[in-house]
Amino acid sequence: MKNRLRFILLFFIPLGISILFYACRKDTAIDFFQFGEEQFTNPDVPMDSNLAKIYYKKALKPTQNLVTANAKSAKANKKLLKFKDLYQSETYEFTFVEIPLYYNQRPSSFFNRENLSAEDAQKVLDGSFDRLIIYKDKNTGKVDQRIIRFIPSFEYLQKNNNDISNNHLNKLDRNFNGYLKYMSWDGTDLYLLKIVNGRSVQKFDYKTINSAKSARTSETCETICSWDYVQNCWYSDPEHTQNEHCGEWTLVATSCWSECTGTVTPPVNPCPSGNCGGSTPPVDQTGNTWPNNILLLEPHVSSVVKDMVKYLECFNATLPATINIYVDQPEANTSKTWSGTINDPDVGHTFVSIEQTIGSQVITRVFGFYPNKSINPFYGQTAGSEIHNDGGHLYDVKVTVVVPPAKLAAALTFSKNYSQGYDLDNYNCTDFGLGFANTIGVHLPDVDGTWPGGGGSNPGNLGQSIRGLESSTNMTIKKTSGTAVGNTGNCGN
Amino acid sequence: MIKYSLLVFIFFFASLGAKAYDDTGLINAFIKSVSDPKVKTDDIISNYLCLTEKNHDSEYYKLVVSQVELLRKDLANLQVEKFKILKYSEFPEAEKVILIDSTEYEYVYAVKNGKKTVVNLYVKNNKISSFVTMNKGKLKIFFILCK
């Protein structure tokens, strides 16, 4: 009996602990964001002011007195959020809010490329600000946050009268030049984006910058230096420059690294004598993987359209519209069904767009038909299908037709009810494009081609068939390559 | 009795990392075999690929042979021991262009030579289900080898 008890204790208790450990390990991230609130786990509930407040209160506020990781000072740094000026928006993958941040030790940074005078550098420090981004993944419902520092160039700041607060993460001024610095809640540096004319042109990963393993020297390197300051504040609105409640800026860290062609070398000490009061930037210790496309300024690749009804809801079926059928041939001006190598064949693509002017607004939606998973052409395996935003996709041939309201209505109905599965041989992107064209009375020649394991409608043959047509009063054929337009009009997804 | 407990612990924790380890090991072995001219293509197919087609004269089998041989060419003169294997979650954002269901992410890997992707792989049930993608401009779709 005693032995049996010992067996139970020694065998099942460790097993139980193991299972408990595994369960906790697996769900740590999810548990952190659940808080028992259904809206935190439901991907259909967007991130908004209320959710952000709950998240802040439960996940961030308890740790707000952590020392800012950049600061030399061990003094606790308290952060406050200005929910009144919250900005709410969304990208293809995330809904998010952007909230101005206050500190009792306000941090700021600049980069020395402009050879700024001390006075101008101070203006940049004053004009920079931090915002907290709380975002929610539209697919998984996962919620996370980042602090993003908006750092203008001195010229841009001057042109905007020292106030750049009109900028948002997904809506930068077209002439915004400067940097966006991504940090974790405790202030640990994560990433730096260089912004030129409102677009991200270069990304620096602080983990790489600080990794001695990736050290490399190059004759074509350019040195970038970062200067981090803090100022003690009793109260400050970081997005405006009335800093009467803040003290002097104090340099807490400075570092330089070399920007080489495609590589980043580790930091070097810009003050070898050690009297500059600086230090190298901290190593990213978070181990976080950068989440999907939180680099909101990076060009977006194709994106799945989750709800076609919503995607097309802006169109007015009582007005005419312009419709384009685009064909990206595997090899321009040939009927080849594929090009490139047999291990990564380019099979081309057929896709469409609808464009309509309503009042002064032009609404454009570009989309194409895709499988939603891997397929096997030899075994005739089919897949589910999904529609993707094909804005910016290259094409070789384009058919343009202006359609009356009735035909637009037919095209919208066809597109919203696209539910047919994807079959490489029998219903692929080209079959979808041909079906779409039929609904508006454009009957394009459907010529089959073959490929290893099968055959059917395809962009190569369709493109060549269209090239055989001539433009008419109702239909314009463009036979030179180009890039499809992007979506316009603020509605749907 | 203590031995039993230790065994339970060891077995349990070892199993946690087993899948990732196995996939990586399989991919390494596959890449090494493909880059080794002494290893026959037929052996590579039977040892590593999930191909269900066994008829060596079939059009399908011949295509797969051509695909493996093309991969051999791609790997020729490269230092395969320096390759890195990335899980899908570790892919750079710009390379997350493979059309798969989110439940399949765990099966997807990239073999990288520096910043360049040598091959994308779909690994399931200890076999390579695909090393071939169909390229649709911005997006890629795996061609799965087996039923």
Question: Can I get a quick summary?
Answer:
The complex is a heterodimer of chains A (493) and B (147). With 493 residues, chain A is an alpha+beta fold. Chain A has helices at 2-34, 49-60, 118-127, 154-159, 206-209, 308-311, 405-416, 429-439, 459-467, and strands at residues 79-81, 87-90, 94-103, 105-111, 129-137, 143-152, 178-183, 189-196, 199-205, 222-232, 250-260, 263-264, 303-305, 321-328, 349-358, 361-371, 385-389, 394-395, 397-403, 448-451, 454-457, 475-478, 482-483.
Describe the overall structure.
The complex is a heterodimer of chains A (493) and B (147). With 493 residues, chain A is α+β, with helices and mostly antiparallel strands. Chain A has 2 domains: 28-264, no CATH class; 303-483, no CATH class. Helices cover 20% and strands 30% of the residues of chain A. Chain A has 9 helices and 23 strands. Chain A has helices at 2-34, 49-60, 118-127, 154-159, 206-209, 308-311, 405-416, 429-439, 459-467; strands spanning 79-81, 87-90, 94-103, 105-111, 129-137, 143-152, 178-183, 189-196, 199-205, 222-232, 250-260, 263-264, 303-305, 321-328, 349-358, 361-371, 385-389, 394-395, 397-403, 448-451, 454-457, 475-478, 482-483. In chain A, helix 7 (405-416) runs antiparallel to helix 8 (429-439). Chain A starts with a helix and ends in a 10-residue tail after the last strand. The model of chain A is unreliable at 20-35, 211-220 and 261-302 (pLDDT under 50). Chain B is an alpha+beta fold and 147 residues long. Chain B has one domain (19-142). Chain B contains 4 helices and 6 strands. Chain B has helices at 2-16, 18-35, 41-48, 59-75, and strands spanning 84-87, 108-113, 116-124, 127-130, 133-136, 139-142. Chain B has a 4-stranded antiparallel β-sheet. Chain B has a two-stranded antiparallel sheet with strand order 5-6. In chain B, a hairpin with a 2-residue loop joins strand 3 and strand 4 (127-130). The radius of gyration of chain B is 17 Å and the shape is globular. The model of chain B is unreliable at 11-18 (pLDDT under 50).
